[in-house]
Amino acid sequence: MTLRRSVLYIPGNNAKALAKAAGLPADVLILDLEDAVAPADKDAARTGVLQALREHDYADREIVVRINDIHTDTGREDMQAIAAQSRVSAVLLPKVESADSVQHARHLLVEQGGKHMGLWAMIETPRGVMQVDSIAAADKSLAVLVMGTNDLAKAMRVPQTPAREGFQYALSRCVLAARCHGLDVIDGVYIHLDDEAGLQAACEQGLRLGFDGKTLIHPKQLAITNQAFAPSAAAVESARRMVAAWDAAGGDKGVMVVDGRLVEALHVEEARRTLALAERIAVRGS
Ligand code: COA
Ligand code: MG
Fold first, then answer.
1. Domain range enclosing 253
2. Residue 217 Cα, ligand 1 centroid: separation in angstroms?
3. How confident is the model at residue 101 (pLDDT cuts 50, 70, 90)?
4. C-alpha angle with apex 193: 90 to 124, nearest 5 degrees?
5. What residues are neighbours of ligand 2 (ion), with CB under 5 Å?
6. How far is the centre of ligand 2, averaged over its atoms, from the C-alpha of 56 (Å)?
7. Domain match, 35 and 97 both
8. Does any ligand 1 atom lie closer than 6 A to the CB of residue 53?
9. Which residues lie closer than 8 Å to 83 by C-beta, 6 or more apart?
10. Separation CA 171–CA 256 (nearest Å)
């Protein structure tokens, strides 16, 4: 199990942010060459990311690089620059709309020395949402789907309200596709940097929709998000009691009652997952 509660974007041409990221409690860092970088700064961002990978110690965090569209020269140059970087665990592909483009990216990645890397796919267009099942099944190197809710809002002409009514179908469809194919799935960003209550609510909603974590744009969003996507102390305690009771009974009961609630094998499996998650978070330290 890989912790992916907080997934922080860092513009590839922002040297200060790339340095700061080394000391931030983000589970995953996305070094961005795409939307956060103006067209004129693409080369500088590529150089900035390579320099950051050489100079900074990002410890045990997963490092992902978001490249430009693989069907453009910029995207192909990004892939070429990143593929052989051993510290990078995955390449994030923007605006994925077909299984073909995932397979094409995998082909280029392997060709350029990136066999060790995984692929992540952004789902941020109506076509991407409609094709998400085949995208999620496209290649076994694909590990994570990431919602791009800003692009999706624009393309769908749906306003970004607090309740995100217009996105429920798209978000749930992507969660279902991820679960069908054993992928993780990360929610979109919350753009109101000073609205802590709003971020908290957005995290809780994302968790209830089934997301494993949330993409973020600023360090001040980390603490709330890490906490929201971590099991609460009460949930951990309840899981511990459930597993202990189940194991004490020999682990082969069809059903039992623990703390006044029905427990079946599936609940015990869920409880073990909660405990494993809590353990990983304890190791990370926050
Ligand atoms: N990752 C790491 N560090 C970041 C950061 C990020 N995404 N955003 C800001 N910081 C750092 C700043 O460098 C600054 O560092 P310092 O303490 O060493 O001075 C500190 O956090 C405070 O930053 P602040 O002054 O509040 O913000 P800013 O004006 O420098 O940047 C944004 C604001 C929105 C431009 C910036 O947060 C950003 O570019 N975010 C990412 C946007 C993005 O990637 N979008 C694409 C995906 S939607
Ligand atoms: Mg986008």
1. 233-284
2. 7
3. very high
4. 45
5. 35, 124, 148, 151
6. 26
7. yes
8. no
9. 91, 108, 109, 112, 113, 114, 117
10. 35
